[in-house]
Write a structure and sequence with these properties.
This protein folds into 5 domains: about 5-110, 3-Layer(aba) Sandwich (Cobalt-precorrin-4 Transmethylase, domain 1); about 115-230, Methyltransferase, Cobalt-precorrin-4 Transmethylase, Domain 2 (2-Layer Sandwich), CATH 3.30.950.10; about 260-385, 3-Layer(aba) Sandwich (Rossmann fold); about 400-470, no CATH class; about 475-595, CobE/GbiG C-terminal domain (Nucleotidyltransferase, domain 5, 2-Layer Sandwich). About 30% of the residues lie in helices and about 25% in strands. α3 (about 60-75) crosses α4.
Length: about 600
């Protein structure tokens, strides 16, 4: 009988499509497959349609060897499947030795080790310039001892990147050993559970807290632990991205601090990118070769035409922020695979070629994308489009608050730095009426009431910037039929104001015609709400030209208009009607705004 064939195959970390083509070919023709139990995805076994299967978890070494030898001698093609790469903690050496001793040939097909699947999941380069140019693959001593010279406290002292297999059950010991080795407690550590599997999980922390976090996540097996400063995003860049720049760049904005990559695909986009770059703290321009001449050579990184995806993926996690001058859709597709979590993802902002809109797509708050978008909008003269909840809730946007509550902004030039401080979570002290504070700001712990200020001025202070606001003054003209009940005024006036976005709080003065001087309901209304009530004579009222004169009033009172004319008169020269006459059967109302002084 012809002799068979034995192939040791590295199955890869888990995902079946991480098997090598050579490994797949061996499986396709296998008569028999010996695999390592739960560590191998069932779908890999489906790639060996002719084979019978043996789970090595249930077999002793002699039994495995017997299967290999019998298969070989009976002319069968036998595949011995190992997880990851067979050469790393694969327990293959005793099999190789025994087969060698028996004169049985075999082939070995390498596989993707779980350590590389873990690095891929983390988007990390294990060897980063200036940080670590070596990687130690090791394990904590567990049931299997480790040679004394390789005990972790000794190995870890080198400060190189460390990747640990088979050690997730020894997290406390591992962290103690790392500290013993002199590694700083804040050294980053990442744990990747089941790298490349569908239920892959990543836990990040530092030497001081990773054991607790892993425990909380309930991870007990099948995990790779990566230790080292290469996990820090702010590490220095590889030389490619780190030319000697620095000169000739002004820092127009100081909102977003961090290294930014700016990408553009079209020539116009790159021209816009080149306009944005100098305004940011620290930015590098990425351009395809064909458009390289569109951007200044200083701070330019070119990549081959057509390899934008590669360039973007490579730059990911090398930068704190990305400004993508292109369609949001293009960026979104890439983020689907790049984004991990909001603690670690860099800020991503998309901007259109004309610079009209800057939209934070990822890491709005913690990553600073909202701030970066505002910086970009500031540079291009465009608009930042924020979608994060606290911004939507009108919380810190003092400019919007001012418009909504009819305050004039006296110091518009300070609003941007104030908004940035608020977005960064800086404490803000406010001087304003207590009730305004309670209704609009008290829910946000960032804000405090420094002074119950009632002169119509509001002051907001954060860090070194402050903004001043002045309440606009509004005058409400009221016409009403004789003996109007107070309840009716109480009902109609607030309701009508609200329809136009005002409230009684916005009204400084009430005004009517002198013939209403004795109107009890009206007098009571003014008194209850603490508003001064002014009356104007018919001649005064008739001297004002109004948009909606009333025939009925003219017939009854000899007055063309009560509400509009009274409101405009009370508000004085230059006043403007902001609510034109609203007529109910028994009441007419109009609101006028005083001109700015
Ligand atoms: N030869 C394998 C390692 C086998 S030892 C390889 O190259 O990956 C088993 C250890 O490998 C586990 O304890 C765990 O530390 C690691 N491991 C295997 N598969 C893994 C995976 N998908 N994700 C994370 N760690 C894995």
């Amino acid at each position: 009988m012809s002799e068979g064939k034995i192939t040791f195959v590295g199955a890869g970390p888990g995902a079946p499509d991480l098997l090598t083509l050579r490994g797949a070919a061996a499986l396709a023709e296998a008569d028999s497959v010996i695999y390592a139990g739960s560590l191998v995805d069932e779908r890999l076994l489906e790639m060996a349609p002719r084979a019978t299967f043996h789970n090595s978890a249930k077999l002793s070494l002699p039994e495995v060897l017997e299967l290999l030898e019998n298969g070989y001698r009976s002319g069968k093609k036998v595949v011995r499947l190992h997880t990851g790469d067979p050469s790393v903690y694969g327990a293959v050496s005793e099999q190789y030795r025994e087969l060698d001793a028996r004169g049985i040939p075999y082939e070995v097909v390498p596989g993707v080790s779980s350590v590389f699947a873990a690095a891929a999941a983390l988007h990390v380069e294990l060897t980063m310039p200036d940080i670590s140019q070596s990687v130690i693959l090791t394990r904590e001593a567990g049931r299997t001892p480790v040679p004394p010279a390789e005990a972790l406290p000794a190995l870890a002292a080198h400060g190189t990147t460390l990747c640990l297999f088979l050690s997730i059950g020894e997290m406390e010991q591992l962290c103690t050993d790392l500290l013993k080795a002199g590694r700083a407690p804040e050294t980053p550590v990442a744990v990747v559970y089941r790298a490349s599997w569908e239920n892959q999980e990543i836990v990040r922390g530092t030497i001081s807290d990773i054991a607790t976090k892993v425990h909380e996540a309930g991870i007990q097996r099948q995990a790779i632990i990566v230790v080292g400063d290469i996990l820090r995003r702010t590490g220095s860049l590889s030389r490619l991205y780190d030319p000697q720049f620095a000169t000739g760049y002004r820092h127009a904005t100081t909102g977003f601090h961090g290294k930014c990559a700016i990408f553009g695909l079209t020539r116009n986009a790159l021209l816009k990118a080149a306009e944005i770059a100098p305004g940011l703290d620290d930015a590098v321009l990425f351009t395809p070769e064909k458009h390289a001449d569109a951007v200044p050579a200083l701070r330019r990184v070119t990549y081959p035409d057509g390899s934008f995806a590669e360039a973007f993926h490579n730059a990911w996690l090398q930068f704190d922020g990305f400004v993508m001058v292109m369609a949001a859709g293009i960026v979104t597709r890439h983020l689907a695979t790049l984004a991990q979590d909001k603690k670690h993802d860099p800020a991503v902002v998309v901007c259109d070629e004309a610079g009209r809109f800057a939209i934070p797509l990822l890491s709005g708050h913690i990553g600073g994308a909202n701030t970066l978008a505002q910086d970009v909008a500031h540079i291009t003269g465009g608009q930042a489009v924020l979608t994060t909840a606290s911004d939507v809730r009108a919380l810190p946007a003092l400019d919007e608050w001012a418009v909504k509550h009819h305050y004039r902004i006296l110091t518009p030039e300070n609003l941007k730095s104030l908004a940035t401080a608020i977005l960064e979570g800086a404490p803000v002290s406010l001087e304003m009426p207590r009730e305004t504070f309670l209704s609009d700001f008290a829910n946000h712990s960032q804000f405090s009431l420094a002074d119950d200020r009632r002169d119509g001025t509001v002051v907001a202070r954060a860090k070194t910037s402050e903004a001043h606001f002045q309440k606009e003054r509004f005058h409400l003209g009221i016409g009403c039929r004789k003996d109007i009940p107070l309840e009716r005024l109480n009902e109609v006036i607030p309701e009508t104001l609200a329809e136009f976005g005002y409230s009684l709080n916005d009204v400084s003065v009430l005004a009517s015609a002198s013939v209403k001087r004795e109107e009890k309901g009206l007098l009571a209304f003014a008194q209850i709400h603490g508003k001064p009530l002014r009356f104007f004579e018919a001649e005064e009222l008739n001297a004002v030209s109004v948009p909606h004169p009333s025939e009925a009033a003219w017939e009854h009172l000899g007055i063309h208009s009560v509400s509009e004319a009274a409101a405009l008169l009370a508000a004085g020269d230059g006043a403007k009607l902001v609510i034109p006459k609203q007529a109910r059967t028994d009441i007419t109302l109009a609101l006028a705004k005083e001109a700015c002084k």
